[in-house]
Amino acid sequence: MTEALDPSGSALASQLEAAAREVADKEQVAARIDARFMLARVFAFASSVAGFLLTAATRDDRWGWYLMIPGALAFVALVIVHRPRRRELHRIRRLAQLIARKRERITGPERPPLGDALARRPDALQELGGATGPGESEAYFEVAPHVREDLALHDGRSHLFGLLDNGTTRLGRGTLSRWLLRSSRDTGVIRERQAAVRELLSAQATRYRLEQDLNAAGNRPSDDDLEFLVHGDLKFEDGARLRLVPVFSTAVTILVLLAIFRSSDGLAASALLLAGAGVFIFRRARTKAIELRKCLLSLEPILTALYASVHRLAVAAPTSQLLHELQCRMAALAEDSTVGETAFGRAVSRLRFYQAGIIWVFIDYLVSWDLLFVLPIARAFEKRRALIIEGVDALARLEALNALAA
Question: Running DSSP on this structure, what letter comes out for residue 367?
Answer without folding.
Answer: S
